[in-house]
Amino acid sequence: MSDTPAPPAVPASQPQRDAPVDDVPQVSLTEIFVGFLVIGATSFGGGVVAYLRTGLVGRRKWIADETFLELLSICQTLPGLNASNMAILVGDRLRGTAGAAVALAGICLPGGILMMAAAMAYAASQGTHVGIGAALHGISAAAVGLVLSVTIQLGRKTLIHWADFAFVALTVIGVNVLHQSVLLVLLVVGALAIFWYRPDRLPPGGHQP
Amino acid sequence: MNQLFGLIAVFAYLSLLTVGGGMAAFPEMKTLVVDTYHWMTFPQLIHLYSVGQMAPGPNMMMIAGVGQWVAGPVGALVVVLAFFLPTGLFTLWVGRLWKRLDHWRWRASIQRGLAPVSIGLLLAGAISIGKGTLTGFDSALLCAGVCGILLATRMNPLPLIGGCAVIGFFLFR
């Protein structure tokens, strides 16, 4: 469906094209790469999905907000980070597999290069100055607070029924108390939760099992 | 060379666990990177993870830092590819299939069921990293302060993290 192959021998920048199939705007691979590169370089402070929504839906008008939210719901169910999965799905809509590839590269490149540089600097700093370790300790404490706040915000929206809290507790106990592998916990508790919310117990639009 | 194969195996596996967010994979990353392969110590991993919270882009780009640490620039490249390719291809495939899954009755069940489990995985990841980070009353207070301010104001966390770096610099030396 979204796998629209480029017309043969027509460069991406050439304006003369037939009327677009679907309502997908004509965007070149370069534009996709640059668009996601900019978001990848400026989305400081986490919450990349919000930056994506502003950039892709608001500023560039590459996709409708409805489509954005639908794609986001796919990403939240699948393994992989929301930000990178969204880049893949939006890139795929715009220009097929090649679009997905350049979108992913664009969004990962700035942060990846920055982290390489940070790791080099960190390796060089080992044992040189006690202040660096102390500052990093402060940053770590803040990072835990950040992760906790994100968890609580998501939890407020998602945890409705008592069973939801039970699945959260089972997951935490499996990983942190029983020290089982995350994969095993994900498979066991995940299967249990999906079975709990099986189709005949899930009224359309309702939350009561 | 052996290191590279190890990096590919570890990060391709970790990527499958990131349901709900990168944090979900943290406990397993600690086990593999620190305990199994001894690529770095737990505090070093926590430091890289925490610095990664300040980098733009997807919130697990710190994995490029781990690859760089273990095997240089090639290591960073290999880790990023191993981490994003398998789940990326899966997402591409499911994304195209999704419309046809519209009437599949289990689709809603999977979305609804995995929602609380992904919250649990996030919390488990936070607990795992917290065990290595919150070593005393001071750090616990910083953590609680950041969490409380973010919940109350929804501000950008970057200035708070920067502030905690300065506080930590004077507090923990």
Q: What is the ordering of alpha helices and beta strands of chain A? A: HHHHHHH
Distance between the ends of chain B: 38 Å
Unreliable stretches covering 5 or more consecutive residues of chain A? 1-21
Radius of gyration of chain B from the CA trace? 18 Å
Protein name (chain A): Chromate transporter
Membrane topology (chain A): Multi-pass membrane protein
Pfam families (chain A): Chromate_transp
Biased composition (Pro residues) (chain A): 1-10
Write a brief structural summary:
The complex is a heterodimer of chains A (209) and B (173). By secondary structure, chain A is mostly helical. Chain A has helices at residues 29-42, 48-59, 65-77, 82-125, 130-158, 162-177, 182-196.
Structure description:
The complex is a heterodimer of chains A (209) and B (173). Chain A has 209 residues and is mostly helical. Chain A has two domains: 95 residues, no CATH class; 71 residues, no CATH class. Helix content of chain A is 68%, strand content 0%. Chain A has seven helices and no strands. In chain A, helix 1 crosses helix 2. Chain A is flat, with a radius of gyration of 22 Å. Chain A starts with 28 loop residues before the first helix and ends in a 13-residue tail after the last helix. The N terminus of chain A is likely disordered. With 173 residues, chain B is mainly alpha-helical. Chain B has one domain. Chain B is 77% helix and 0% strand. Chain B is built from seven helices and no strands. In chain B, helix 3 crosses helix 4. The longest helix of chain B is centred in the middle third of the chain and has 36 residues. Chain B is globular and about 55 Å long.
Produce the secondary structure layout.
The complex is a heterodimer of chains A (209) and B (173).
Chain A (H helix, E strand, L loop, with lengths): L28 H14 L5 H12 L5 H13 L4 H44 L4 H29 L3 H16 L4 H15 L13
Helix pairs in contact in A: 1-2, 1-4, 3-4, 6-7
Chain B lengths: L1 H15 L9 H11 L5 H11 L9 H36 L8 H28 L3 H17 L3 H15 L2
Helix pairs in contact in B: 1-4, 3-4, 6-7
